[in-house]
Every structure is written in C-alpha cells, then in structure tokens.
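Extended Data, panel c. Modelled sequence:
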Amino acid sequence: MPEAGVVAQVRAFNRFYTRVIGVLEAGVLGTPYSLTEARVLFELAERDEIGVSELRQLLGIDAGYLSRILGRFASDGLVVREAARDDARRQIVRLTPQGRTAYGRIDDEQVRATEHLLEPLDEDGRRRLVGAMDRIRRALGDAPLPRTVVLRGPTPGELGWIIARHGAQSAPQEVVAARIVADFAFRADPREAAWMAEVDGEPVGCALCLADAGAGAATARLELLLVEPAVRGAGIGSRLVRECVRSARSAGFERLTAHAPAGSAAARILERAGFEADRQGWTRSW
C-alpha cells in the first residue's frame, strides 16, 4: 500500500491541476457543457458514428449517466441516436452539423486556453512540462511506448544521473557506478564514450564503452547499461548496445566484453547484438 505522504502529494497535485484546467467551473471555458460532456463531444467528433455501448466503454462512465448526457444532446439537436443498420438491438450515435459546430467552439477555446497556459514558459520549460506529463501517463499505463529515441553524449550533470539511477536499484550498485563514472571522467580517454538515451528531452537510459586495461589494449568493456522501467520494451537497450559496439570498433578495439546474469533482459539484448557467452561473461569480437 502506498505511503500516506505519497497519497497526500498525489491528491494535492490533483487539486492543483483541476483548478488550473478549470474543471471546478460550472462549464468548460464558459460553455454550457461540463468537462464530461465536452469529452463526450470530443469522442463523437473523432469518428463518424459509434455504438453507445462502445462509447461508454471508451469513456469508462456509468451507462445511466451517459444516457442522460446523450438525451440532453439530442434535445439540443447536437446528436442523433438510432438503431444500427446491421443490428437493430445496437444503438449508434453521431454528431449533427450543429453538434460539430458546438464541439468546434469548445475545441477552439481549449486551444486558446492551453496556449495561454504555456505562454509564460520558454521552449525548454515547455519541453520539460510535456515530458513530465508523458512520464505520468506512462507510469499510470495510459500511453504507448515512445516513438522517438535520441542517443547522445551526456550533458553536464548527467554523469550524476547515471550514478543516481543505478543507486536507485541498490546502494552497492551506486558505489560501483560512482567508481566507474569517476574513472571515466578523470581518464578522459578519447577512445572511451558514454551514451545517453533521451525521450521527450529527458534521459531514460545509459551505457558506457570503456577501455579494459586489465584485458589488454585491444579490449573494451560495456558498463552501466540501464534503461528506465517505464520505457523498456521499446528497443532502447539494444540501440545503446549497438552504439557501444560501433564506438568500440571506431576507436580501434578488437572486442567488447560485458557482464549480465544468464537469462536476464540484459543477457538477451547482448545475445541479439552478437555477443557470445564465455566464462568471463559476454564477448563480441570482430
């Protein structure tokens, strides 16, 4: 069960955000329609027609409540309800031209209100806001996996992010990550590289390609491969590994080694990338 303090913070955020977007007002942005009614209009405007039962499932609201909303809309001339042509037992609903006009006014007002909300923020602030919103949606299971992933070198402060995210897994991992990152930063070996995976302007993964002095000048090692749980399954880990392989080859190394427990997600990524298991861990040679 979540801690009481976490629950209180979520409730506080909900109160703040509902005030910001005007949910507490009698009508959405000065219109005669509630937020739920405006959402019904939106879903109807997105398609030519839809079954009433499908609409209820899409919205997740009570059947009686939806029936009253559609009844009001029908009285106002915004929708038409009728039996489906292929099944008289199934009722469908669609917007009338008057209904589409009403929705258009609401949509225009919402666009203007959102632009006004974003106006005080600079480009970086807007990017971070949208990124935070996307992370909330992913955390609550309401968004697809990210479409665009950027791989790049770390910016100032992100070496600390690498340490912190490994530390979130366990204290010993934080100590190991801090040592590896510190060695990388102080050596400044031009053959070595660190890679960050970014989604919506925020780091979501990392990997380091380092010289392995103990194994000879021709060997590099892949370290600190990590992908945030919220974006796993999108191929980010595989892309980070491929980038480390490419970097090691370009730097003149002849092989790249890595460690991952047998059967783990990391091991499967390494195997797909052409690594072979051996007594020391995983190795890819070229």
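The first helix runs from residue 4 to 20. This feature is highlighted in the accompanying rendering.
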